Amino acid sequence: MPLSVVPAPSTTMDIPLVFPGDPVLANPVSASLAAIARTFSPDTVPTLPRRLSPSSANVFRSCPKRFYLEKVAGYRGPGSVATVTGTLVHRILESLWQLPVEDRTLDMARTVLCEVWPGVRDLPETVASLADDRSYRGDAAILAKARDLLECYFTLEDVTGESTIEIPFEGPVSGQELHVQARIGDAEFHGFIDRVQTITLPDGRLHRLVVDYKTGKLPRKADYLDDYWFQQLTYAVLLRAQIGVTVAELRLVFLTGRVFTRTVTDADLDVHEAEMSEVWDGVQACNRDARWPGEPTILCGWCPFKSFCLEFQMSGIPDRNR
To answer: Are residues 39 and 16 in contact, defined by beta-carbon separation less than 8 angstroms?
Structure first.
């Protein structure tokens, strides 16, 4: 039965291990899954989200079943130390770019680290993530990793520029952690941009760029950047749709050692806008057919939902968490 389009629940719930469209396989793997299958709580109804973020759209593009588990059913996988470190470093950089140019130094970044960590540490999601991650060995390792990432950051970007956007938003204008939202086709998309920067070129023209910080591992090949560019292009489309700003450059700053840039035009954004609409059409088709197929790849070995997925169980892909 198709699901109604209402806000997705935010609480964790039991997930059935057999989904519409799953093959019924008479073998020990299928039997073992059936033995631990659970049904949804009686008072919980899985629902489609009202809007999509770039990350949720990427989840659907890579695996509709994971989208169902995470975005429709509301199941939350375990958190990690890496996620906590990423949140911490993003908070530091946001604070740093709000300071006068002369105060944006590595020493100041280290000071801000000490100031913002207690607040990040007390967040419910931080507490839950550290409890989930068996590799957690104390706060000192997180702080040391954050310091290393900040040191690398100062070798990658010029922090003397202005982090502002001159087109007025509703509410305070920051240039950082901007919430953008617009209707694209039949779907509502939204997201938070790490930084929007406007640079005045020597000829007086304005050059606008969208900057996204990444604290994870550096991709081994530029070909592995597709999901990251999808996210950035989505931000650019939303900026254009919401306030008429055309972005000229996308910048991915991997604090593990490299900056990737990409120029964009209105024609590029037109193509991507159509791709965004296709994602929502795909979500609606899966919902209509009550079928959310898994898409096994080598990355499934790290998926937090693999124990719920028959395709993974039958794929022979190694479980990377064992």
So the answer is: yes
